[in-house]
Amino acid sequence: MSWIGRFRNQFRRTRISSDLDEELAAHLHEAIARGRSAGEARRAFGSELLHRERSQDIRLLPRLDALTADVVFAWRQLKKNRVVSAAAVLSLALAIGATTAAFRLVDAVLWRTLPVVAPERLFFLAVSNSGAEGRLPYNEAFDYPTFREYRQILGDRADVMLLGTPFRQGAMFDPSDEPEPVYRQFVSGNVFGVFGIQPALGRLLAPNDDLKPGAHPVAVLSYDYWTRRFGRDPKVLGKTFHIVKDQYEIVGVAARGFIGTEPGVVTDVFIPSMMNTQALDSPGWSWFRIWVRPKAAITPEQVRQPLQAALMREQQERIKTLSSDTPKQAIDAYLSHAVNLLPAASGASDLQRGFRVPLLILGVLVVLVLLVACVNVGNLLAAQAAARAREMALRVSIGAGRGRLIQMVLVESALLAIIASALGTLFAWWVAPRVVSMLAPADDPVRLMLDVNWRAIGFGVALTAAVTFLFGLAPALRASSVKPMNALKGGEDLHTRRRLMSGLVAAQMAFCVLVLFVAGLFVTTFERLSNRPLGFSQKGILLLETDFGAKRPPAVPMQVAERLRRISGVEAVSLAGWGLLSGNGWIGTVRVAGRPIEVLSPYFLDVSPGFFETMRIGLIGGRDFRAGDGAPHLEGRNQPVGGVGIVNEAFARTYFDGQNPVGRSVDVRQGKDLNAPLEIVGYVRDASYRNLREPIRPTVYFPMADKAGGTFIVRTANDSLTLAPLLRREVSQAGSGFHVRGIDTQSSLVRRQLIRERLLATLSMFFATVALALAAIGLYGVLNYSVVQQRREIGIRLALGARSAHVVRRVTAGIFGMVFLGLAIGLALGLASGRFLEALLFGVKTNDLSVVAAPILTLLCAVVLAALPPVIRAVRIDPAQTLRSE
Amino acid sequence: MPKADTLQGSLDLLVLKILSRRAPLHGYAIMTAIEEISGEVLRIEEGSLYPALHRMEEAGSIRASWFTKDSGRRARVYELTARGRKQLASEEARWTAVVDAVRRVLKLA
């Protein structure tokens, strides 16, 4: 039998049905024509309807036929209860949309496999260290000498690749143009070959493009950039562009879909690693990840072991260079280093590192919201099903099978879920890019592949099916187990139905409390972090990261600072190695006579005179730097020269028991076992240096030495970048070789510190609000239903003299019990989940009473608000009216 | 779908045979032809003829077309397809084999 033909027939039902009628009528007509009476002919024929049905079933797909009928019927049902359906669809759509958006995000950041050959055989190296500063468990960045060594050690056991961190730089396609931002990624020559990537145009980089330092000025564009910047112009081959001082020629475009190896950043141009000339021989200059692909029949462990051995040798060497009084803890930390091979099938990026846990937590929250929404819709449908008990009973009595009834109710749920999914997908499509934009500051946005792929579609379909069963199965089973006798008697056993609904209320409350609890933690964290005193004033501060062209004595950039100071709108200008909270850090060792060396070494920062005034960091004692001050350093190879420095309160607390340290002297470690004396000339307030989260560390400020670059710190009257172009021009004109690499406001650096916390706080608060609203609506629905169902009973009770309080208790008792059960379960879950959240929290503990109290109070308020209208309705029932209407 | 009963095989065979001799015929004519030729021994339940015809049509052993009679009424007439012809041959052989077998049993038992 032809399936397709029958499926097609499904859409020609009227035609088929009229043909059948005509044929059967012709039969009877013929019979009469041959002399039989009409009655006799009909009798001989048998049940016309039955034969007709049988013929129709042969022509059509009976199951599909029933399904079509169910869909039509379900649609009518949904239209009949417009308000309920709209509420159900909207709340589901919101939840499904949020879930889909979360899935797309998590998929794009964490799960999307790179479009390369055998991605599951790719690994990247990470060194783990369980040291005292072990905030980051892994170090994933390496320097070139290490890469060279590892490549040699591994030999032909594995392909060893260098994949630089994509970095935004100014590129000029025409020397007269303003530089435009381009994300360039350094790669070793074997990357494209090992990944098996084909060129979309021209050729890709090969191993012989990466042999001699500085000798391979070629670049490959990503397909995405080629499309965006050049509109897929094939004439792009042979074009040249400048990045800083180097000129590159475009030799090819990589295959579509390959946008680099770091989810979060889309690489625009790939450049041979040999072109990063300065970094090649600089140990400690970490600028890339090392990827390996073990050759066939080599296990990852066989790759790891020789690397681990090399790392240990290196660490032993390093320990030998440490001075003899290094604390044992620090030595142990050196020895705890271990090489790890982490799977790289989905790429490796800082975004993954920073957002893996937060995104998964948000994913869990979103699923909880979805569950709350499902319970809600389930309750709405259950209430509706109660109203349809008679219809179901009728269906059962005329012979509808249990399976058929389940199908009918499930079809209704599915229709609801499909409509909600469609709306939700639209919502997700709209909201996902907006969430992505919250992952990074606007000037350096995160870019993800958020296209529609089979995984997203599969997820959507699976989600819709899951949702259908989640909220549809219970009502379907109930409907199918209806007992015609009960229903026709007019009194369903209400208590079982209410028990199901109360159970759902408890579940809903539990999910809701959990979401509220987690949201409360994140919001508190964000608040505490953003209210943390910085120790400096960020208002109006602009940071100009500047290249001096060559190593210059401090007086030269100070002259430039003088010029900047003359611009109107500029209040103060000074200079530092880098801005506070820029992410850079310099850690050194300080020794105070008669004290052991502290495990937590102090931060160092070189600053010009006027820095503290510009940053508004209060001077407690002593003096600011002045021209002519020098930092402690080594003259030649091993001649320590003393200098001056300014320290903060934490330094005084750690090394001088909180006494004013001005005038005291400490030793600053220079190389192995050499110390240069430093005289403390100033004492300043604490200020955040590198990270808002960490406690303020002891910090030593040094005078500036001869340098090739630094950051001008400019305090302007208004907190915006309006002066930026003017300042940039002024710096370039100030002296030969001076140019500004980047301008940022101090406040954007501070904001950047809070991105993750802001994201978590905002989204979890949003989910909490949605969950709360849904739970309140759900509770209202259940209570209202229970009042409507018990109207007769309440009426009788009131007529017999029951007090209002008694009625209220009767209506709410069971439900409130469930609410409290849900609360307790939710809180228990919340406290249990604290362990997973701790790393993301700041200044707040999961068992903090204030944090626990907030969600409970909020929820109780919502519960009371939701319960009030039905309760009032119950009390106001007029016995006479109710009894009359029955 | 209706269950296949033992007589159904023979009904199909009869319909195919009739249609192989005189075609095209409508349902009533097929019925009367079977009754007449069998000397009123084989009687077909009128209503169940049509589902059988439709099943065979769906299976592709017969095909139907509309034919307008002189009275202006339309009748749905059936004729054999190539597949139906093949099926007839094999059904006939099977039937003969069964009848022979039954006869042998009746004779010898």
Describe the structure concisely for a colleague.
The complex is a heterodimer of chains A (886) and B (109). With 886 residues, chain A is an alpha+beta fold. Chain A contains 28 helices and 25 strands.
Structure description:
- The complex is a heterodimer of chains A (886) and B (109).
- Chain A is globular.
- Chain A has 5 domains: 3-60, no CATH class; 66-112 and 351-492, no CATH class; 119-345, no CATH class; 493-534 and 754-886, no CATH class; 541-718, no CATH class.
- Chain A has 28 helices and 25 strands.
- In chain A, the strands form 5 sheets. In chain A, strands 15, 16, 17, 20, 21, 22 and 23 form a 7-stranded mixed beta sheet that branches. In chain A, strands 4-5-10-7-9-8 form a 6-stranded mixed barrel. In chain A, strands 1, 2, 3, 11 and 12 form a 5-stranded antiparallel beta sheet that branches.
- Chain A is of the alpha+beta class.
- In chain B, 62% of the residues lie in helices and 15% in strands.
- Chain B is an alpha+beta fold.
- Chain B has a single domain, classed as Winged helix-like DNA-binding domain superfamily/Winged helix DNA-binding domain (Arc Repressor Mutant, subunit A, Orthogonal Bundle).
- Chain B is globular and about 55 Å long.
- Residues 1-6 of chain B have low confidence and may be disordered.
- Chains A and B meet through helix 2 and helix 4 of A and helix 2, helix 3 and strand 3 of B.
Highlighted features:
heterodimer; A: 886 residues; alpha+beta; 5 domains; 7-stranded mixed beta sheet; 6-stranded mixed barrel; 28 helices; B: 109 residues; Arc Repressor Mutant, subunit A; 3-stranded antiparallel beta sheet; 4 helices; 15% strand; globular; disordered N terminus
